[in-house]
Amino acid sequence: MKHFAVIGHPVAHSRSPAIHQAFARQFGHAIRYSRLHAAPDCFADVLEAFRAGGGDGVNVTLPFKREAYAICSQLSPRAQAAAAVNTIDFSEGTIYGDNTDGVGLVDDLTKRLGFLLQGSSLMIFGAGGATQGVLAPMFQAGCAHITLVNRDVEKARQLCSAFHKHHGSHQLAYCAYSDLSARAQTQNFDVLINATATGLSKEKLPIPDELFASSRLAYDMFYAAAPTAFMQQAYAAGCQQQSDGLGMLVSQAAHAYARWHGLMPETAQLYQDLRAEIDAS
What are 118-147's pLDDT values in tens digits? Predict the structure, then answer.
């Protein structure tokens, strides 16, 4: 029986075991899927122990995605673009790293929400690893323009510069939160995406109401039983549609499953089941 796991700190909350077991049932696969906790300085040891014990692959969650990237001996183009790894495959005798976060977001936007990304204009709040992981897939899906907004503007500038260096002249720009009121007067953004840690708190980002009101979708990469603070802001300001990141979680897991098993699971029913379970908790 193949054995997989998710490694994180913390990891007890992870829904990955339930998600991958649900995918396995679709195909009649029998798998083991474990949670592995790693202390901040022990990721490499935990990963190698699992591999040496016969493990077939792992999912990597916070805060180890960049460390996983450094450890892998082979990398997919998606992982190289993200400079982070969330899926590792041991099946070919190597440590092969992939990143399915970006394609998971694209799938959730286009398939579950039915949003057309071709020619769209996006604004992403945050300039950390979550943002870096989705930029290339979003442009590949047809996004025409992406603007990054970050409290540390220099960090956003550096991310834009690094992306342009490796991916050419995509329309990727950055600005400060203090620039948003002026931007809202001259530009419309189809989608606003929150990739900051405020998705886990009640903190509101300093985003003017008019920016939300002129956008078609406000998307938070984090998920919870109740609408996140970002989603509440968007709704109150008149944004047409709001969504959290549960669908992204399910979709990125589906692509990880496909990497390991060569089969792409269906996600719609599992999303509905998880949504009902979370909302009832």
Answer: 999 999 999 988 899 999 999 999 999 999
How remote is the C-alpha of 84 from its chain's centroid? 11
Active-site annotation, residues: 65
Q: Which residues pair with 34 in a beta bridge?
A: 5
Q: Please, which residues have CB within 8 angstroms of residue 90's CB and are 6 or more apart in sequence? A: 51, 55, 56, 57, 96
Give pTM, 2 decimals.
0.95
pLDDT digits (tens, 9 = 90+) for 139-181: 999 999 999 999 999 999 999 999 988 887 789 999 999 999 9
Asked if 17 contacts 251 with a C-beta cutoff of 8 angstroms, the reply is no
* Exposure letters 106-122 (e unless 16+ CB within 10 A, then b): bbbbbebeebebeebbb
**What's the token pair of residue 201?**
């708190």
- Domains of the chain and CATH, by start: 2-98 (3.40.50.10860), 102-246 (3.40.50.720)
- Residue from 20, 4, 82 nearest 249 by CA: 20
Per DSSP, 138 falls in state H
